From TrEMBL:
It comes from Actinomadura syzygii. This is ABC transporter ATP-binding protein. Residues 73-82 have a biased composition (Gly residues). Keywords: ATP-binding, Cell membrane, Membrane, Nucleotide-binding, Transport. One of its GO terms (biological process) is peptide transport. Residues 270-288 have a biased composition (Low complexity). Residues 256-268 have a biased composition (Basic and acidic residues). Residues 5-249 form the ABC transporter domain. It is found in: Cell membrane. GO terms for cellular component: plasma membrane. Belongs to the ABC transporter superfamily. The chain holds residues 294 to 625 of 625 of the full protein. The keyword Thylakoid does not apply.
Length: 332
């Protein structure tokens, strides 16, 4: 697919107890029309911060997010450019309960994204019934309160709410990880079905690498706030080029050990560089560290890795890697 949503050099820094946390640093990528773009990386690597910038819940400190909308009518009604953009990109969060107001009837919550549009009351009610049906909830759900539903059903409600306004892109931030294992597969099946039915593009964040592999067309790997690798799902899982990707995949349970990339010989030092936080130094004035954030954990690190930051480059068509000494690239 063509680039639909272009993320250009976005960064987001938080201040916490006088320290700067570089949650996302200079991330560039394009989300392509109709794809599932998986996003992986350890806890604190900036996945949710990136997700919130994609849906404009957080503003980048710098960089740009551009939705290309062929056929998009100029002007339009209410909400301004930012309002329209927001409706074009919707998000489903990990904890469905947190995104639903317990005092509002389900129909009211699901209808909410339509409020800023020019959809009439009757058409809105019809669309709400339609999406509730689509996510597999009973006819009378709209009149009930969120508490009457199970966790899996609540997540179906959150999905209905995300798709009701016909978005182009849906950002799914660990959409099944809070659900019972028995329910996870059902919700994933539903998400795939909806993607086809509504012609959606997904950004799918998950710690479950097996699921990411199964549903993603391409996968982005984040480490310490940066994009370290981006490739087709098949090539990423078969031949990871960044040493962090290799470490991440080596921890992945596989039914066939031959599918697993070799474990790096040197084990990472626990707790090191788990986020941009560890890199940010002593205070507000701390500059970004020199070199690669993964260098201290990397089995292939050489001197230049500690002094020169590797920028993401397209090593081969469709594969972007930010590493001075990528794995398995000899002779390609
Ligand atoms: P997880 O896999 O645990 O969900 P993540 O990859 O989604 O992690 P983020 O939530 O984006 O990571 O966090 C990135 C970094 O930014 C972390 O160090 C986190 O503590 C910090 N951070 C995130 N949100 C805030 C905030 N509102 N205020 C201060 N620091 C924040
Ligand atoms: Mg997160």
């Amino acid at each position: 697919g063509k680039p639909l949503y272009v993320v250009d050099d976005v960064s987001r820094t938080y201040r916490s107890r006088g320290r700067l946390i570089h949650a996302v640093q200079g991330v560039s990528l394009d989300v392509r029309e109709g794809e599932v773009l998986g996003v992986v990386g350890e806890s604190g690597s900036g996945k949710s911060t990136l997700a919130k910038m994609l849906v404009h819940l957080e503003r980048p400190d710098s960089g740009r997010l551009t939705m290309s909308e062929p056929g998009h009518r100029a002007g339009g009604s209410g909400g301004g450019r930012a309002g329209r953009l927001r409706r074009r990109v919707q998000m489903v969060f990990q904890h469905p309960a947190g995104s639903l107001n317990p005092r509002l009837r389900v129909g009211t919550s699901v209808r909410e994204p339509l409020a800023a549009s020019d959809t009439g009351a009757k058409a809105a009610a019809e669309r709400v019934r339609e999406v509730l049906r689509e996510v597999g909830l009973p006819e009378d759900s709209a009149a009930r309160l969120p508490d009457e539903f199970s966790g899996g059903q609540k997540q179906r409600i959150a999905i209905a709410r995300a798709i009701v306004g016909d978005p182009r892109v849906v950002v799914l931030d660990e959409p099944t990880s809070a659900l019972d294992v028995s329910v996870q597969a059902q919700v994933l099946d539903l998400l795939s079905k909806i993607q086809r039915a509504e012609n959606l593009t997904y950004v799918f964040i998950s710690h479950d690498l097996a699921v990411v592999r199964a549903i993603s067309d391409r996968v982005a790997v984040m480490y310490a706030g940066r994009l370290v690798e981006l490739a087709d799902a098949a090539s990423l899982f078969e031949a990871p080029a960044h040493w962090y990707t290799r470490e991440l995949l080596a921890a992945m349970p596989s039914p066939d050990p031959r599918d697993r990339p070799e474990r790096p010989e040197r084990r990472p030092r626990a707790g090191q560089a788990e986020s941009g936080q560890a890199e940010s130094g002593q205070g507000e004035e701390a500059a970004a560290p020199a070199g690669c954030a993964f260098a201290s954990r990397c089995p292939a690190a050489e001197d230049n890795c500690r002094t020169v930051r590797p920028e993401p480059v397209e090593l081969e068509p469709g594969r972007v890697v930010a590493c001075h000494h990528p794995a398995g690239m000899e002779g390609r």
